[in-house]
Amino acid sequence: MGLNALLLVVVVLVLHDSRTVISWMLVALLLALAIHPAVRWLTRKGLRRGLAVLAVFLVLGGLVALLVASFVPMLVEQGKALVNAAPDLLERIEESRAMKWADKRFDVMDRIQTELRENAAQAAAPALSVATGAARGLAATVTIVALTVFFLLFGEEVFRKALEWVRPEERERYVHLAVQMHRSVGGYVAGSFLVATVGGVVTAVTLLVLGVPYFLPLGLVMVVLGLIPFIGSALGAVVVVGTAFASSGVKAGVITAVVYLVYQQVENELLQPLIQRRTLKMNPLIITMVMLLGTSLAGVLGALLALPVAGALQVFLQDALARRQSRWIGGPGSFVPQPPVATDGRESQGAVSEPPAPH
Q: In angstroms, how far is CA 205 from the centroid of its own chain?
């Protein structure tokens, strides 16, 4: 007993120390699940798996390069302009009637200024720290891309080797579970990326038409926050509407808010049911608790990974519950309903019978 407890403590400590690498592995796995349908389609067309993976990554790399060449310079320029204009935008928001009302009752502006001062002090890091952070980001990107490729190339082979440790009569069940997890989690990840991208494009186009000068970074904000389920889109709307209101006036802010509300209805009633039809089906209370737990453990990355991991676990638990319920029905000591019997020996609809005694 003591040895088992010690082993459990060691495992927990190892997992805690390896949480960064584990998070990279989970991100790579989710990306592989999202890309796998394209790879599978190419292999069904007769292309070898390695060539199919190479073709998909070449297409994705080309799209990324096109986006970088086309939009990143503009994005950087607008991002710098937004940062430089932030004090003026905050001042305009502070002078608005709604903010004066909120500030009078809740001291909103004082709290915002306090947070900005604290974050600014922390942001004044030396150049060495910035370079270290950039190097870590590059290492994480390279590692995740390499792991994604390996998952796509060798994931099925590893799974088949792992099945050899399972009893032959149980292998079909685990294959079925893997297929269900793959379908649920992979569809959820791909659908989430698609829905978040559509939301970001709608936001950027709306702001461009309204003449808001920061449409690209704000559209990117909606894409990133849109990946966070349940509350991410609402947080993005607060940032986007507030910036449109402060930079381009009340009319632009109101139109942006209306477009967001209309798009949310289209997303909830059309896009989400269409894209996520066969993916995660989870209780909102469980979604909230899972997101809070993931955020507390790993911040924004934890919030992004929490639901896919919980979705895979949900498939496993549903299967375990179904198997347990099948053992409960008709097992020793189980309750089997019997037809009511009247006192004269005939069946009666109104009498209540006692449950049979346990065997």
A: 24
Crossing angle (nearest 10°) for helices 2-17 and 19-44: 70
- Structure tokens belonging to residue 151: 């998952």
Q: pLDDT tens-digit profile of 320-355?
A: 888 888 888 755 544 444 454 444 444 444 444 444
What span, in angstroms and rounded, lies between the C-alpha atoms of 25 and 18? Answer: 11
CA distance linking residue 3 with residue 104, whole number of Å:
60
Average pLDDT over residues 68-82: 71
Identify which of 207, 328, 344, 188 has the alpha carbon closest to the alpha carbon of residue 272: 188
Distance CA 313, CA 184 (A): 11
152 C-beta neighbours (distance < 10 Å), count:
24
**47 HSE (CA, 13 A, CB side):** 15
Closest CA to 218 of 193, 245, 194: 245
**Type of residue numbered 242:** G
Alpha carbon distance 234, 295 (integer Å): 17
Asked if residues 113 and 91 have their Cβ atoms less than 8 Å apart, the reply is no
Beta strands in 250-356 (DSSP E): none
Q: How many residues does the chain have?
A: 359
State residue 142's pLDDT score: 87
- Cα angle vertex 110, ends 104, 111, to 5°? 110
Which two tokens mark 292? 């809070």
347 forms beta bridges with 341
- The type of residue at 212 is V
Q: State pTM to two decimals.
A: 0.63
In whole angstroms, give the CA distance from residue 170 to residue 94: 64
Q: Among 132, 131, 158, which Cα is nearest to 147's?
A: 158
Q: Which amino acid is at 153?
A: L
pLDDT, tens digit (0-9, with 9 covering 90-100), for 86-135: 777 777 776 767 667 766 666 666 666 666 555 554 544 444 555 666 67
- Other C-beta atoms closer than 10 Å to the C-beta of 280 total 21
